[in-house]
Amino acid sequence: MTNPVFLGIDVGTSGVRGCCIDSDGKQLAAFQKPLELPTIRGNNIQQHPDIWKQTVHEIISHLSQQIEPRQIAAIAIDGTSSTVLVCDTSGNPLSPALMYNDQSRQHESIKIAAIAPENCAAHGATSSLAKAMHLLEQHADASHICHQADWIAGTLSGRYDISDENNCLKLGYDLINNAWPDWLSKLDIAPATLPKVQTPGSVIGRVLKEVAEDLGLSLQCKIIAGTTDSIAAFIATGAKNPGEAVTSLGSTLVLKIISDKPVFAPEYGIYSHRLGKLWLAGGASNSGGRVLSQHFTKQQIRQMTPRLQPEQATGLNYYPLPATGERFPTNDPGLQNRLSPRPENDLHFFQGMLEGIANIELEAYKQLARLGAPFPEKIFTAGGGSCNAAWAKIREQKMGIPVLTASHTEASYGVALLAQQGYLTNT
């Protein structure tokens, strides 16, 4: 195909975003559409998969007004981690999907805790495995366990029996041995319902004829194995070598670094995803933008930011937390927010908070290094705080390494790169 286009579709919590790129990674088109919100009943959070399918088709139709749809050579999907459903052999959902933040499967998580290895990512009520156990008990005739990205890719390819390494981590997949572990049989998980696991960026198959005709796609369009939304956002930054890290300055402080070996420390919420021949290790602190918003409005932050003086440290030894408790780099449920003494000058206080979060970031990367990951050689920044140049300077001074603003941070762009990779390496 001449001038091939690669489409990445990010299915998030509140919306779906599509991004088309060319062989050089240049963005050609983008479109996003909100999703109907999940149904919430206590800890039970559900959404019907048909909503995803309809919205994805609408995204492709809108993008087709910006680019020629028959030029789309490959499509890859990312979805929210641990959003799970079960379906029949034809891919028909047997119930609504249990969403990534559904915490209703406490009973199943207790069973998992008694059997699964300590460093397994399938622990907890929000894991894919806990949700799959419940769904299989309710639907004994189920043929396939599907994650969100798996099922949507299935609607395009007809293959509902395939998933990727990143999504399957919280379903209990053993990334070290590239196999489903034997202990899963003790949880009454029928092996036939478990997906065949592929590497993100590998080819699942070609688009279904009826889908191609409906959306104006070429019959040669390849459907590529995708990933989770957070991994897609990491890929979007361009980080790809050991020692390259990404810090996301959102409501919380999330760190990921590329390592030549995996790091597992469940006591800190640290797990490693396979990233090609390398590994992606990361953790998340409770500190971040949420605690800033407890003290300042967005307007106040915008007004104060140009007046910050990164070269003149405040000397305030803060540990900013939105509430009691920290998980990483210190695992201490009783750790108290430390924001005193508070100076009368709001600008001084604001800079002290930014310095405190930078200190947490530094200690977090040191903790990852102590556990076996490399210390960063450079850090790409994503999230809402990435546009704060003064904060970047504060962090750069603390870290002693370059702190860069990522050119791309959208998960849809990252998964479009996976579509590109899958096409170019299999053509």
Task: Write a structural description.
Helix 2 packs across helix 3 (128-138). The chain is globular, with a radius of gyration of 22 Å. With 427 residues, it is α/β, with parallel strands linked by helices. A hairpin with a 3-residue loop joins strand 14 and strand 15 (253-259). The protein has helices at 49-63, 106-115, 128-138, 148-157, 165-168, 209-215, 229-236, 289-293, 298-304, 346-370, 389-399, 411-424; strands spanning 5-11, 15-21, 27-34, 39-41, 44-47, 72-79, 84-87, 97-98, 144-147, 162-164, 196-198, 203-206, 222-228, 244-249, 253-259, 271-275, 278-285, 378-382, 403-405. The protein has a six-stranded mixed beta sheet. A six-stranded mixed beta sheet has the order 16-17-15-14-18-19. A three-stranded antiparallel beta sheet has the order 4-5-8, with no helix packed on it. The mean pLDDT is 95. The chain has twelve helices and 19 strands. It has two domains: 5-232 and 411-424, ATPase, nucleotide binding domain (Nucleotidyltransferase, domain 5); 241-405, 2-Layer Sandwich (Nucleotidyltransferase, domain 5). 48% of the residues are buried.
Features:
30% helix; single chain; Nucleotidyltransferase, domain 5; six-stranded mixed β-sheet; alpha/beta; 2 domains; 23% strand; 427 residues
